[in-house]
Amino acid sequence: MKQYPEWIQEFDGNLWLTENDRDNLKISYRLKEVVFSEQSPIQHVMIVDSHDFGRMLILDGVVQTTALDGHIYNEMITHVPISLHPNPKKVLIIGGGDCGAAREAAKYEELEQIDMVEIDELVVQACKEHLQEVSGNLSDPRVNFLFTDGLKFVAGKENEYDVIIVDSSDPVGPAEQLFSYDFYANIQKALKEDGIMVCQSQSPLFHQDVLGQTQRHIADLFRHSATYKAVVPTYPGGLWSFTIGSKVHPITPENVEVRPLNTKYFNQDILTSCFSLPEFMK
């Protein structure tokens, strides 16, 4: 019998992945097979094939993205900030090892450089080979893969990027510092004078503390800030938040004309409506 990590169990001949969220909620997925499973120096990296969501990226037992709905998150964290910038040329993605955000950014012909800083090279390797529904086996020459610590990388940059996308995992373990004020201050410094940044700011239902803290940090550091939302079924609670900061440009999605981008979720109506928040998120 194969040995699997503790979050993979076999019941009645079926494999089940169980994600434990904050020790309060357990979500189980019936699997077809474990496609890839390996321990990196940083975390356990796994690709599984599930019955409902297709292939899934699992880091330390937590679902990161899936073939079925990964496009929603990646399109929203990428196209919203790039669409709001009037002349983006150079983009930095911190995290995003599944390559989905970089794949979406590469749809913009005007972008000259896309730097993707991911601390764990094994995640990129696994997703490019085994999760091409999300990664597209990305090979655009404008994408520079930089396998290093995003915190240290951005601390050494100043006035360099038009758009910075912080595509971090949950604020535990290696990603915890990617939610700190000092990190966002370095992001602000690394942006050009008219730069725009965005970060994922967790579930507005289960992580109101993280969302509130992120909103305060971004509002303090940027002239313009806002939170927007999307529904990502595999994330606990379904409803997910993103927080955006702009040095100069007002966040006025109603004034932006979205071009055809071969997207599955993002469009003109979504760009406008995603900033309309329920009362509790305001």
Structure description:
This protein is an alpha/beta fold. It folds into two domains: 8-64, Spermidine synthase, tetramerisation domain (Spermidine Synthase, Chain: A, domain 2, Roll); 70-273, 3-Layer(aba) Sandwich (Rossmann fold), CATH 3.40.50.150. The chain has helices at residues 70-84, 100-105, 121-130, 132-135, 150-155, 181-190, 208-221, 268-273, and strands at 8-11, 14-21, 25-39, 44-50, 54-59, 62-66, 90-95, 113-117, 143-146, 161-167, 191-200, 224-231, 239-246. The strands form two sheets. It has a seven-stranded mixed beta sheet, with helices on both faces. β4 and β5 form a beta hairpin. It is globular and about 60 Å long. It starts with 7 loop residues before the first strand and ends in a 9-residue tail after the last helix.
